[in-house]
UniProtKB/TrEMBL annotation:
SMART domains for this protein: LRR_TYP, LRRNT
Signal peptide: 1-27
Biological process per Gene Ontology, one example term: nervous system development
Name by which UniProt lists this protein: LRRNT domain-containing protein
Residue intervals of the LRRNT domain: 28-61, 281-311
UniProt GO cellular component terms: extracellular region; plasma membrane
Species annotation: Gasterosteus aculeatus
Amino acid sequence: MGFCGWAAGTLWKTLILVTLPHLTCHALCPASCLCGLDGGVQCHGNTIADVPELLPVNASQLLLDRTNITVINKQSLARLRELFDLDLSSNRLSSLASGLFEGLTNLTNLNLCKNSIKKFPPTIFHNLTNLRVLAICYNELEVLEAGIFDDLVNLVELKIHRNKITSLPLHVFWALRNLKTLTLSSNRLEAIPEKSFYNMPKLNKLNLFNNPLQLSCNQLFPNCWICEPPKLFANYRLSSIPATSHQRYVQLAPLFCRSLLCHNKQQAHPPSTAFNAVVWACPGGCKCQETKILCSGLSDFPTSVPGSTTELWLYDNRLRRVEDGAFRNLTQLRLLVLSRNQISSVSTGAFGGLEHLEEISLHTNLLTTLQAGLFQGLPSLVNISLEHNSISSLPSGFLRGLSSLGEIDLRNNSFPNLKQESLDALAIAKDVLLQQNPWRCDKDILPLRDWLKKHTSKTNQTLVVCETPFSLSVITVCTSHSAPFVMIKCTSQRSLYCCTSRTDVACADDEPIVPSCGKHSLTSDSKHLPLNLKHIEISSTPLTLIPVGVFRGLPNLEKIILKLNKLRRLENGLFDGLVTVTELQLHGNEIESIEAGTFDSLENLVMLHLAKNNLSTVSTDWFSKLHKLQTLRLYENQLTTIPDDIFVNLPNLKEIGLQDNPWHCDCNLIPLHLWMK
């Protein structure tokens, strides 16, 4: 039996599971830290100015980053002899004491990036013979002392990019015979000593991008190394470029080279293991892990992303547009995440050339339309995430050519209906998520209703529910009938939904009352509204405030919808006397504060929708009188934690939506974790 056959109104208990890290708050852990049962210790925050005392001596991992520490005493780490992972990045260190790491012979990973260190003591890394990864990038280093790396015989990766180094000591890397990756990009190197990389048999990636160098492979490696023609020209000057290459590429850019491939003539390396020199630097604002790149804090798309990238994560940035060819060089890309930005426009050719792309995420942006042909030329695409936007229609043939499409997520957009040609396009997907849209069940909903009945396996049809008219608001689209459908005509900025039924919305002599909301405020006078009004909607307006008194004298109200406005705060008294209201929708506003007592009169409230606002805190007192509340939605706010007693007065709560908040997953979330269990 398909989902259409299920009874409408079935209650679903939806739990947004929060998985807490294995952390404990026991007394043996410093107050400013979190200590895991597996030996991990995390100490973060601007309140930390010194290395915490009494760190567990059995700690195997110490993440002491993003603090205000300026100096580390030599004895601060001496007891932590079981450490294998030490992260001191993003602090305010300008120097390190000689012998600071003495005795930490088990260290395999050491991160000192993003400090202000200008010079290391010559013996700072001595005796760290087990170290495999050393990161000293994003500092103020001007010189490297001779012999500084001599004891790092097992080092595999060395990151020195984003410093101010002007020269290298002779043979400074010769002890690193196991090194595979060396990153020296974005320094001030003007020359490299001859034979600097001769004694490094396992080196297969050397990054010298963005240095004022002029060099060729013959200057870097023994005579057994030869150069192929450069593949790309951009941002890097080379002195030896074959004439054929110049003739071929001169139209692309000035004579700058970004890619230089060098091959060992004495070994038959396949192309996949060829030495790759002067290829790329991890773009600014990004973290790079092999072929995965994650970027944050960006207003523009990163430049110089390597063509070998398979995953590009650009979520939680400030990107606004995606232009044609934005990713044209990323021909190996398989995952592209553009969610949680401010993207309002994506050009038709934005994803051109991404023939291997399998998944694209554009959820939680400002999209209102999609361009026809946006996903053409992506034969490998399996998943498309477009949820949490404001898309109201789909262009004809927008999924043409996607023979492998598995899931397309269109939840929580602005679809009132879907045209037949759009539904025909969706039929190629295995799963189609359509819930949480403002489906308007008039005659234009019939194509969607029939499509749902035909494709029972593609979507959970019990969740695709009419939002308007209010008389059908608990009816699923696929179980509704054509008889009740009437033409509904409203202004584009309606304050009350218009229909022909006096009990559904405000009507006088069968004419709808539609006060103007084309301004930023309402008057508190409601005397022109009939006393029998049950449902009211004020949506998609520029209103920033609804004053106390607007709903006074409307004792029969059952549903209030105030979504997609610009409301910034809710005042105590706004809902006074509304004891019959069971549903209150306030999502999609800019609410930052709610006065205590605002919801106290809503004693019969069953559903409260506060998602997609700017709430950074919630108070237990807000919900203390809502004993009948079953659904509470707080997703996509700015919450980092919630009170541990928030559920005390909510005995009937069945659904709580908390996803997509910037949670601090510490001990304060344990009550939520236990409640969900």
